[in-house]
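hey so u asked for the seq, here:
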Amino acid sequence: MNEENNVSKATLSRLPAYLRYLKGEAGKNVTYVSSAVLARDMNLSAVGVRKDLAIVSSVPGKPRFGFEVKGLIADIEKFLGYHGWTNAVIVGAGGLGRAILTYEGFRNYGIDVIAAFDSDPAKIGAVNGKPIYPMERLPEIIKRNSVKVGILTVPRAYAQQACDILVNEGIQAVLNFAPVYLSVPESVRVKYEDLAVSLAEICSGLH
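ran it, structure tokens below
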């Protein structure tokens, strides 16, 4: 990411959400959007939104109009590095892995999930045109496609082993859905996603 060291993690975490909102507005043929409207619709601080957009926008917002939507989309994508495609692969072709493999939304952020891998011969094949390969082909596919990101959707017991394989093949970032913490070199980024925890959090306090 550009200028990552000079931007707070909070701002970086909000930029993809801004991008998702702006692409939704572009789909409705909205030409301009103000920081105040964006803050209102996303339930954020107007001051915070103005500061965030001032960091990434190459053109100041126009009085009474705000920011040009398409231009702001391009600025955020450039800032986040979405102007260049990043290839990713999945290890674990169960229900979750297959759902991620066929999800088209990643392409909006410059990410192409090109294939999944599994050790179960019964799962080898394709889903909606996306291939599922045996694990033996993982090194070949990663090298051929310069894959930088691995997505783990394997059971807990196999997560570290699968992660080790990815790291050994040069993967630089791992998105882990397995409910276990992974041991990786400092040079490898890991993001943990636990769907059960997320669901429990939003259910907390419900009656």
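Helices lie at 9-27, 35-42, 46-56, 69-80, 95-102, 138-145, 156-168, 195-203. The CA atoms of residues 59 and 148 lie 32 Å apart.
lmk if thats what u needed
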